[in-house]
Every structure is written in C-alpha cells, then in structure tokens.
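Quality-control log, excerpt.
Job 1 of 2 completed; input and output follow.
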Amino acid sequence: MKNSIIEQIHNPEFLEAAYRKDATSFKQSFAEAYPSIKNEVLAKAWYERLNYTQSEISWGIKNEWKVVTILAALVAVVAILPNFFKIEQDIFYAKNVGFIVFPALMVYFVWKQHQPLNKLIAPLIISLVSALYINLLPTLTNSDSVSQAFFHLPIFLWAIFGYTFIGGDVSTTNKKINFLRFNGDLLVLCGLMLIAGGLFTAITINLFEVLKVNIITIYFNYFVAIGLSIIPLFAAYLIENNGHLVHKVSPVIARIFTPLVTITLFIYLVTIFFTGTYPTANRDYLLLFNVLLIAVMALIIFSLSEVAKNTQQKSNQIILWVLSVLAIIVNGIALGSILYRINDFGFTPNRLAVLGGDILILVNLLLVSFNLFKVVTGRVEVEKVESSIALFLPLYFVWTAFVTFGFPILFQYK
C-alpha cells in the first residue's frame, strides 16, 4: 500500500477509499510513505488527520455509558451467583470464568461497531453450548483431562470473542493483528486497574480493622468478585473511546522489555549450557516455558508497529530477530523435555496438551523468525511478519477446541 499512496497522493478519492477499507494498514503505510511526499499539500492534510490526538478523556457516544452499565450489572450478577446457591466458589470460577468475561465483550463490540445483531447469534450459541458442556463435566479432582478442559475453555471463548471483534472477517490479516494489539492494550489497562483496586482494597480493609469490624469475607465475596468481573468490560470501553492514550502504552512497554527479555534469554541459555541442567523433570517449568514463548510473540507483535515507523533503525529489527531465534532455542529445549517425559512415563492429558502447544508455537516462531530475517535484509516489509503471526491464529483455536472438548472423551475423564 505504501507505493500506491505515493503514486495516488493527488487522488483524494483513492486515499479516502483506501483509508475506509483498512484504516490501520493505511496509517502504517502512510507513515512509511510520508517522508517522500511530505511536501505535498494533500499529504500534509492527511498527516494532520492521522496524527490528531484528543486533549480530553472521551466517555463515548450517546447511550454508550448506559449499555456498558447494563452489561456490567449482568456480569456482576453472574460473578456473585455462588453466594446465593450452594456452589463451591473454586469450582464455579474454574468452570465459568470465561463466561463472566467474554459474552459481555462480544455484545459490547457488536453494538459499538454497529454490526448486525445476527453477528451475535453464532458466538452466543457457541458460548451457551460451551457453558452447558463445561458445567455438566464431572468435577474430578484427579482428572487431568477435565482440568485441561477447564484451563483451555477461556482461551476457546477468547477466540470466539476475537471472531466477533473482527466482524467474522477471518481473511483480513490486519484485523486479526488489530485484535491481538487490542488484547495487549486491554491487559495493560486491566493491570493498572487491578493495581489501583488492590490499593483501595488494602486501605478499606485496614480502615475497618481499626474499628474492630471484619469485612474480609463479605468484601471479597461481593465487592472483589464484582470488581474483577467488570474490569475487562470497562477497560475495553475506555480503550475504544481513548485509543489515543492507551494505544501508545503497549509499544512503549514492548520497546523497553524486548532488549531486556533478549538479554535474559541469552544469559539463561548460556547458563543451561554451562551447568548442564535441563528442565526435564518439572511439568511446571514446561508450562512456564509456554507462557514465556507467548510473551515473546506478544513483544514481537507490539514492537512491529514501532519498527514500521522507524524503518531506518535496523537495530530494532535485529533485536527482534535475535529474540525470535532465542525463543526458538528455548522452544526446542521445552519440546525435547516434554518428549523425554513422554518417552519415560507415557502420554497423559497434560503432556499431550503441552506437546501440541509447543509444536504449534515452534512452527509459528520459525516462520516469524524467517520473515524477520527477510525484514532485516530488506527483502520484505513488516506486514509479512504480521501475516505469519495471524496465519496461525485459527490453528491455535482448533487445538484449543480439541483440548477443551476432545480430551475428556479421549482420555475417559482421567
């Protein structure tokens, strides 16, 4: 699109159509093209339009606050259900945490984006069927397959929410990448809200303790449960209406932590080499490796926007490529470790779940690293790396669905 913008800079109709078709891609390509067209009057006008920032906090369009409040009230009711029925809290939240968060987000974005209401039918039906399925599963404390279903169901619902977020347009790479970036912004804002809420909770409990009044049980069962359940919805609401503030945070965090994570991984791998200690015996370490690899993919995604804006800074591109290579080595160690456990102790739901995730992430990282190398050598644009990340999202969804719905049956609830 960069070359098209340069060629069509005197064609207002083309520029407007390109912007409306894919605003995010247009903004990124325009930023790359601007240095060569900055003397054009129309280019200056578009630059000001695309870089305009609000000076005040926006509270959304008319009636939006009412919609968010109604959804939050419904979410809060679901979150405190264990207080009114004889339901064990730990089991209820293990099974239903995804249903507390994602259906409300689906409804909000369908309304916010003015999508036809029929766009909600399939996601809500899938959510309802999933709710019935997970709550009818036997709650067996020693069943790894059921535990894996509990763990993977929120990820499955997150993918359904993503389908709603992009309006069902799974063929457009930029929309899928925008969804991933939105999740980064959501995590950052939710984190800030949780820190503020934690401080408020500590102060409130201690104030009542001074009066010799113990409010801990009531406070956590109601106020904390409600607060945790509605934070994602309100964070999404603020992001949608104040993107000019929030969207800048994730790339900054990625810019800071990318070199730190790269150095840490390098030192960690060197330490493994010299000590000869490999994580072959601890399942928790293997799970931690997968979390680390997902974090690396997130850093790459959020760093790409900065790389696109500063195409002349090769150092950023090289750091990202080195990080991807180190992540592949770490993934290889994790994969070798889980294969070692399977060879010694056989297949279990936990080992198979980790193995499948490791293989998917490894292949994805290899493709990402290969394309990052092409970016470093100037053979492809950054969009190629984004495409290689977005390409695997449906595969992750399929694997998550298989673990959630297939494992309990495949392993006979063991």
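Job 2 of 2 completed; input and output follow.
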Amino acid sequence: MFKQQKKPIGLNFHTIGFIACALLMLVVLPLTLSDFQINLLGRFLTYAIVAVGLDLIWGYTGMLSLGQGLFFGLGAYCFAMYLNLETAGTRMPEFMGLYGVTELPFFWQPFHSPIFAIFMAIIFPTLIAGLVGFMIFRSRIQGVYFSIITQALTAIIALLLVGQQKVINGTNGITEMRTILGATLAAPSTHLALYITTVIVLGVVYLGCRALIRSRFGRLLVAVRDDENRVRFMGYNTVVVKTLVFAISAGIAGLAGALFVPQVGIISPKQLDITASIEIVIWVAVGGRGTLVGAVLGAILVNTGKSSISTSNPDIWQLIMGGLFIGVVLLFPKGLIGSIQDMFARLVQMWRKPSYSPTPVEPSGIEVEIAS
C-alpha cells in the first residue's frame, strides 16, 4: 500500500485574498477616506451583508426571495427602538407625545437594553422567515410562486407599519437617534467604530456562510437546487432544509439592518418595501450569484455607482443605472465574478493544452485487394 502524500501547508488564493481585503478595509481605507466616505462605505457594507444572505438561498439553494428587504427593515426597526429610547432618556419618544400616547407601550420596555435589541434584530426576522417558510415549503410551493409570496408578504407588512403611527411613527418612521452606548452618533469616532464593526461582522458572516456551503449541509443545498425531487426520494426532508436556510438568511438580513440604522439615523416603511428587496436581487445578480464574493462585490459596486452617478447626473441617473444593469446582465449573464471564473478556467485549459500536434501516420504503401 502506498501512503497518501500530504498536501503542502500554505495559504491558498482565497485566504490571501481575504486577508488582503481585510487589511484594505480595516487599515488602508480608514486612513485615506474622509468621515463622510467612511460613513457611506459602512452603509454599503451592511448592504453586502444582506446580499450574502440572499446569495445563500438564491445562488446555492435556488430560491429567489423578494422579501429580504423586509427582514433587513425589521432588524433595523428593532435596533432603532433601542436608539430612540436611549436618546429619549427617562422620557417617552417624542413622536408618541404628538399622537397622545401617555405611557410607553409594553413591547417597547425591553428595548432599553442594547443586547436585547441586537438579539431581537436577529431572532425576530429569523422566526418570521422560519414560520412563513415552513408553511410555504410544506405545501411544496417553489419557483416563481415562492418569489411572489415573499413579495406579497413584504408589501403587506410595509402597509401595516405605515398605519402604526402611535407606536412606530407610521410613514415618518423612527428618526430621533442621537447616541449609541453613550457615544454621539454624529461624531467621526463613532462613524469609524461603526464602520470597523460592520467590516468585522461582514467578514464573520462571509466566513460562516462559506463554511456552511462547503459542509455536507451546503452540498445538500446545492442538491436541492439541482434536483429537489431526487433529494426527497433519497430520504431527506427538504422542507426542513429549505426552511432552515431561509431562516438563516433572514437572520443575516436582520443583523445587517441593525448595523445600518445607526449609520443612517432613520428607518421608515419605505426602506423595507418591494423596491428595496428587488435592489438586493440586482446586487447579487450583478456580482454573480452562487459565489458569495459576487454578492459583496455587487452590493459595493452598484451602490457606489448609484451614489456617484446620482450626484453628477441628478436628472437622469436612474436611466443611466438602468442601462448599466441591462448591459451587465446581457454581457455577463453569470455576473462579474462568474464571468471572471469562466475566463480564468478557459485560460487554464488553454495553458494545459499540449502545444504539439501528433505526427500524422504515413501510409505503408501496402494495398489490400478485396475479392469480389
């Protein structure tokens, strides 16, 4: 018997790239960007977090959810309640007094604690996604019908929030946020701290999702995407598998929302409507679904382009962005990362192809007569 040779220990390309990006985000950019740019990039990185969650269920499980904006917004609302209470101090939030509320609602009371607020920002969207997902998948609803249901759920909850003026300020949303853990939200040092926290959370979420898809459970997700019936016939409960991954993606979106709201200072029903969910899908499609890296890249590139183009061309920026989206989808149907991977694979194949051609065999000159 031959002993299996051990692979040399070393850093692979992915690890080197991850470390390089971490150094760029944590060291280089804070020293080179202004306070405004740091705050803006921090928001974009929260978008990247929710995009990674969508890629987990769309790219690897084949379920296109149009409700990620809802889970993102619910997480933001949970943490905004804490920020609003910290700003109000011993008083009630200012908007409640405008509507004649004399006592803080009972479900607001626990949100005096930032730990509870973070916990609920993750758990609340996770529970909703788990409950809704179980009912959908148990009925074997999939494909475009799953997308329509998640879109309808987003529209319904957004409308419900609009009508809750007394408890969450309705259309205006929660706005009175001035401090976080005693620090002033408008201070540059707070912006930097929130940015670094967002970078770290993005790295943890990315590594966690990458470990998940490389595990046996991740291979099961890909199998469900490719042929769910065969997976079911093999004895796996696909309802549980799909419900679990849908709930995980919702929890990731809620965490992203909790990081988003202190960097913006406002959350309203408008920020969790159908349009927001469609934009998340665009980020993943542009970057390349089924790659995780593409979700991060797409979220940053699209929002950076949106910010730059809307500033330089405020009248026609939507037309320009629409044209760019169409062009990217037509030219790079697999997204930017997917197209780069295909191009790299073709180059490797060409490089490995032998550079010589086999020598043609000369005829021997022996003729064989066939008897008629």
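Post-run check on job 2. Confidence is low (pLDDT under 50) at residues 1-10, 368-372.
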